[in-house]
Amino acid sequence: MLQEGSNYDTEDVSLFDAEEETIIRPKKSKIRHPVASFFHLLFQVSAIIVYFLCELLSNSFIAYMVIIILLSCDFWAVKNVTSRLMNKTVSEAETRIFWLGLIVCPVLWVIFAFMIIMGVVLQGANLCDYIRCQVGSRKNFTSMATSYLGKQFLKQDTGGDQTSRIEGESLYVLLH
């Protein structure tokens, strides 16, 4: 049966040799395409930095045009350069750089968009409240207009001139 000197009982044999070779492969830590990896992150990070510094750089829309140009360059670089290079054999570091740029930067832009939307909503609420305070509540405005119109009808019927003129001036002051 088994001899003591043989190593038959201690040898591990794989059933699927081809699968095991693909799983156990040496990891490449060196970045094979450093220029592509650099530009992959450069355009995205530059656009975010310009967005933060746009008030310092320029008070016009030019800063926003620069952001659009940088994001367009990023789109071109990802579509035509880095994605094609990443389809070939790449290192683990390049893969992390590629996916980091594709996930983190759009998440930051979504956060910025959410902050802008919240700013617009809060400013709109301030505007509505300011208008309500200036004009008065809708109920008071409606009752004031109704009473003014009623007094105008009474003025025409009775021919009274002084009281309606004073009330008309008070309505003019409230509206303006």
Automatic annotation (TrEMBL):
The keyword Magnesium does not apply. The chain crosses the membrane at residues 35-53, 59-77, 97-122. It comes from the Eukaryota. It is a multi-pass membrane protein. Its main location: membrane. One of its GO terms (cellular component) is Golgi membrane. Keywords: Membrane, Transmembrane, Transmembrane helix. Pfam families: DUF846. It is found in: Membrane. GO terms for biological process: protein secretion; vesicle-mediated transport. Belongs to the TVP23 family. This is Golgi apparatus membrane protein TVP23 homolog. The lineage of its organism: Eukaryota, Metazoa, Chordata, Craniata, Vertebrata.
